[in-house]
Amino acid sequence: MDFKYKFAMSIDYIFGKGVSSILPLDNLELSFSKRTGRIKSVMLENKLLATLRSDGSIAITVYCANLLIKYPLFHGNCVVVENGPDSFVSNGRSVFAKHVVSCGGRVKPTSDVAILDEKGNVIGVGKAILSAKMMQSFNRGVAVKVRQSINNTIENKVNA
Q: What is the dihedral angle through the alpha carbons of 48, 8, 92, 79, rounded to the nearest 10 degrees?
């Protein structure tokens, strides 16, 4: 089986059917683990797109989220944060439940999510701590632990 097709199937399974159609599969660069032979990371135009974990899940980057957000079904994996705290989130701080404006129905605890501001711009990616229903009903606690944000990316650290 072609590894690029396998990656596309994984994206579709995790984030929704057809979401991988946005990605130019012919231009993807895959790196493999020397020990296991599995896909380790996926790059596009020399930028990290995603990292595959040993449990089969995919850790997307802000760059990948910016590509996938163009597909409407991907919005089910997004958390929208109100305007005030979005500056904290864009600097890598966690998202608290009281600041969540809305979230997609596919958001479950431990799932990877894209974090958007109220205008629909991607400001970070991270791991959901609460389900979609809990995020909208709770007023306390961490809703999403941010892994990467627009002001806290690898490229920004290298160029600084």
A: 160
